[in-house]
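Backbone-to-sequence.
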């Protein structure tokens, strides 16, 4: 087994745009070089979405989207870092991800032995005014966020490329390895890098790399839309420019990822360290005329994600095993001989990495609380929406926090009311507040406007572009059976089967 683990999570990393996965639109030489010495997982899919639920999958190993929308680590569970402290494994978090340091994500970092937060990304409330000496460089003229975000102020304080959050994070991670790799018996470094997440804001020379002819303010904030160009939300020219700006940020963070690889080289870590590169989800940039992460089912650009693992002593190449993010947690637990005390849902990837087994699971499930629930067997993908009015639906939590929307303070998690009662999560003796919702209630932010009766089924082997919906065929009945099996095995709330009309 490896002695150490390095996890590099790049947010909103599009699999289909990486050279190692066949992309040729943008350049990613460092990720491609890393992939060449890694096991490349071809069938890795999302679980709980979006950002913080996906990190819950990785750090806690439990799919939580069936119970709650977005929030902290709960009282009945522990992050893997808690157990690693008891195993005397040194853990370090390096991140520029704002959601880890605000309500809804406030306790994911607390069980690391050390952590460093690099300021200034997206909605980070770092500065409250623009730099009075700001003259437009290196941050170039760009659109402001429609909902005022921290980055509109923060970007004016960057003095060079090194000051942008992504470069700062990668540089700090490399420095930590240089200073610490030989000082600890065993360690886990977790690099939670928010790039290439929006805003797609880069300095020169990256900013003009893929769209040098653009004139005027750069479009760095995607318009979340399921019919972007068709609806007039943006023109075809603006859509190309936005996509190019994502590519610029992808190539920039790939460049700085190279700093971490250089440090791994300098410190001779390839022979005793498992290095995992992953993401939470992809990002739509015009595929099917979708932009951002709007309320649509998880088509392949969002839900089919990259996973690269460098594992000491094994061959490099591709594997077709079906995997998902809770399996990363299970793999870390396997490496460090940890038995979680709470119920988890992952399968260790060690048998695949060591070529002892071609597979670890027969199905994977994912979704967003209150929306579609999606299941795949690796070739067929079925997304089932609720029927009727979208209820029954309950939120289960003792933390009762969620992602803040700073520009809209009234958009917040509704407080539990007198309908709430105590229940128990699978495998837990800790009572948990269970708040039922009914038609007309103010719902949690991520559960607003649930789709009803809008199911989707695709055979990805025959139809990788997802153009031919197979709902209504005999195959749908088979996938409903698989979804039911998955929910029962996960001990999902019975109301989830009822709201999906598969009880």
């Amino acid at each position: 087994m490896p002695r150490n683990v390095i996890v590099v999570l790049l947010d909103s990393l599009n699999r289909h745009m990486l050279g190692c996965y066949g992309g040729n639109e943008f350049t990613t030489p460092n990720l491609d070089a890393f992939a060449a010495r890694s096991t490349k997982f071809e069938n890795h899919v999302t679980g709980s979405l979006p950002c913080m639920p996906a990190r819950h999958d990785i750090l806690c190993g439990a799919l939580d989207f069936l119970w709650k929308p977005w929030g902290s680590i709960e009282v009945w569970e522990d992050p893997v870092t808690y157990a690693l402290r008891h195993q005397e494994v040194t853990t370090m978090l390096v991140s520029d991800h704002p959601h880890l340091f605000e309500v809804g994500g406030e306790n994911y970092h607390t069980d690391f032995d050390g952590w460093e937060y690099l300021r200034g990304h997206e909605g980070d409330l770092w500065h409250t005014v623009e730099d009075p000496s700001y003259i437009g460089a290196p941050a170039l003229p760009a659109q402001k966020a429609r909902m005022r975000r921290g980055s509109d102020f923060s970007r004016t304080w960057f003095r060079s490329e090194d000051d942008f959050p992504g470069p700062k994070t990668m540089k700090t991670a490399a420095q930590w390895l240089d200073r610490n790799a030989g000082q600890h018996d065993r360690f886990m470094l977790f690099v939670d890098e928010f790039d290439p997440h929006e805003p797609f804001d880069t300095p020169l020379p990256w900013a003009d790399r893929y769209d040098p002819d653009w004139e005027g303010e750069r479009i760095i904030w995607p318009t979340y839309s399921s019919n972007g160009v068709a609806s007039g939300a943006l023109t075809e020219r603006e859509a190309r420019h936005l996509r190019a700006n994502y590519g610029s940020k992808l190539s920039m963070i790939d460049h700085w990822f190279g700093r971490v690889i250089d440090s791994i080289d300098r410190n001779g870590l390839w022979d005793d360290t498992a290095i995992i590169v992953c993401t939470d989800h992809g990002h739509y940039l015009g595929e099917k005329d979708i932009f951002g992460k709007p309320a649509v089912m998880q088509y392949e650009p969002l839900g089919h994600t990259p996973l690269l693992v460098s594992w000491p002593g094994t061959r490099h190449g591709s594997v077709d095993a079906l995997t998902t993010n809770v399996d990363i947690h299970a793999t870390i637990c396997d490496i460090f001989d940890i038995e979680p005390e709470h119920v988890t849902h992952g399968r260790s990837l060690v048998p695949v990495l060591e070529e002892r087994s071609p597979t670890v699971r027969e199905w994977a499930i994912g979704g967003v609380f209150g929306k579609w629930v999606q299941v795949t067997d690796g070739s067929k993908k079925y997304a089932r929406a609720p029927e009727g009015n979208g209820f029954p639906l309950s939120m289960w939590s003792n933390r009762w926090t969620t992602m803040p929307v700073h520009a809209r303070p009234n958009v917040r998690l509704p407080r539990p009311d007198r309908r709430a009662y105590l229940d128990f999560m699978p495998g837990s003796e800790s009572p948990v507040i269970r708040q039922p919702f009914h038609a007309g209630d103010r719902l949690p932010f991520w559960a607003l406007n649930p789709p009803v009766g809008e199911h989707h089924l695709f055979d990805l082997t025959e139809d990788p572009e997802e153009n031919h919906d197979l709902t209504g065929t005999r195959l749908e009945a088979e996938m409903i059976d698989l979804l039911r099996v998955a929910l029962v095995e996960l001990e999902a709330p019975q109301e989830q089967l009822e709201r999906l009309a598969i009880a």
